Predict the structure of Plasma-membrane proton-efflux P-type ATPase.
Amino acid sequence: MEKGLKRISSKEYEKIYPEEVFNILESGKDGLSDEEAERRIQIFGPNAIEERKESPLKGFLRRFWGPMPWLLEVAIILSLLIGHEVEALIIAFLLFINAAIGFAHSQSSERVLELLKSKLAVMAKVIRSGQLKLIDAKNLVPGDLLIIELGDIVPADCKILEGSISVDQSMLTGESLPVDLSAGNIAFSGSIVKRGKAKCIVVNTGADTYFGKTAELVRIARPRSHQQEVMLQITRYSMYLGIVVMIAVSILAYAMHLKNELISILTFDVAILMGCVPVALPAVMTIMQAAGARYLASKGVLVTKLDAVEDAASVDVLCVDKTGTITMNSLEVTSLIPLNSSEEELLELALYASSEETGDPIDLAIVRRARGIKTKGKRISFTPFDPSTKRAEGVVEIEEKRIRVVKGAPQVILGMCDPDGKEFIEEKLNELASKGYRTLLIAEGEEGYPLEVAGIIALSDPPRPDSAELIKRLKELDVKPKMITGDSFPIAKEIARIVGIGDMGISLSDLRNLNESRVLEEIERADFLAEVFPEDKYTVVKSLQALGHVVGMTGDGVNDAPALKQAELGIAVSNATDVAKASSGVVLLTPGLGGIVEVIVQSRKVYQRALTWIINKVIKVVQFTLLLAIGLFWLGYDVLTLMGMALLVLANDFATMSLATDNAKPTLRPNKWNMRNIMLSSVALGLLLLSEALVAIYIGKKLFSFSQKEMQTFILLTMVFTSQFRVILVRERGYFWKSKPGRELIASISIVITAFLLLGAVGIVVERIPLSASLLSLAYSAAFTLGIDPVKVLIFKRSGLIT
């Protein structure tokens, strides 16, 4: 970087005198030359946000890298080595399907960055070499002189040199009230000028701006994907079990001369790998989440990231952004306190000093409240609110008298009026301020005579009609709401009281000097947090996650985007910016938060369906791997062929995809993936059902005297039938008859059972066995599997799966 040109934060620039800013940025009263601006673009970069994109091809190929793909790829290679090309093709097909589904539904931050970049792509009025020019804002550099006025989006962080403006920073800081800025203040990129005009010097551009740092927070936000964690753990446990059994059995079988040829050992190893890898898990998860997303869409909720459908089930803390989420993000007249007149007369006076045409939020609030009031006078003149004088003024003619009406900041108006009654007025002002209300004084008087205070107007950003009910339902679902706002503590406290969030609150400024453990403690116990900046919201979410919470975050503005991206569940409300929507997993299509309870309830149903599939899969892995091992030593040959193994995988893993629409009961508390308890209970049931398969071998030997191929068919049918009844067994955490399976699940089970009865009777791709043997296998599987239901209930209770 060139000598003299430094990168200083925008907030630091606010403390530096304009003359010194000119020196630091090597600029002058005539601005920069075009040549100097071009040189500075090479130093500071364009006024845009750097993109980091992964090529689609690389993203797709990445789906073939990881523990689960590795196991399947090994199985494909081994199948080809032993000459089982058909089985290798089946495994390759399953691997490709899973990769395609994962790639199609993957979400990244690129869309968010694209939207943030487009926000900066505005035109700017800049002074260069003493000439006013209109340029693309991406070409702004530190040191440029900038003119901003009513309606402009501030294109870069800049220090005001001359003039005064009022800006809307709600999309950046979350503050619902406009902010008045004058010479010496910093106007942040992304703010909207609501009033006034100013000459400024650009101090920071692109990613160095306050707005740009929000984009950087979105980029680095890395929410924990609980779905990915679960899939990784299931794969890891299955892989460990499979590899241990595979190595141990291969060595023992070779030592005992049960398998003397390498091809025979490899055939057994491939069968183990095919049975252990949860091939359909990614696809099943995606289908379940997509089904949940379709249901939510019918309720006015758009799911933009499928992981959110499952992750919402585990949310135990919901960080709720106040402005625009709990509240309306619109100033309203809350209270009228006339001193010597009626409320209607006070409003009439306020109208004379207000105008809808200014677009001023306070003027608009007064006009809305005064609709229907007929004014008695004719306004002669009107002076809009001026940040430098902090007042607006109107002159009206009533009954041939000219009345001067002034509206403005209390201390300014009091200084212009007769001191009588000042103590009462200040008492009322303090009372309203303690509740977080913004106050105005209205004063009137004949032209040429002293002004008198006519009354007080209190304004606030009111709660949405459904906010209190939402908070109540969240607490019933054992989800703790935490309100987060950039507004002051009194405003936050009053809103929290009205909607029933709680009275335990903190200001983030009070935490600055505390140690990390104390900060975490204060954040966890707080019902609401005030005076919060965008980076604070992101930090709050990270802190709660560090404490073991699964965090949801609602919001609507640019300021919410990093926290929305970091949270396990980001929820954008209906009026949210595109940036907030792209950062979220869920977007509410209707105003307010009415859909949020639907999201949590539906996600808990999806969780229960996913849990059923996982328990069923783990049971099958335990039962299958140990059956292959014991069966080999008992019978002297593999109890399942590779083709039989492929058929079993299809019947067990993919036929049970109908669980995506199964009837499921949501719990009244957040669902957590306690993999230890899930694995222990599943292993226990797997060992029980292993005994069923071993008895089936005994029946095949003693009752039917089956040959090797017939025995392999009989065991295949028994395993397939068991897999279908096992779904009925585990889908209900209590006794299996307590809830009816969904129609799709019943149809799927019926089709699989019928198909395999036909398969065994006709002898398609397997050895034919008598129909009586197939029917006995069906009846035996149903009786044994459903007969252990009381034991299942006991196991689930002890493992905490029944709540």
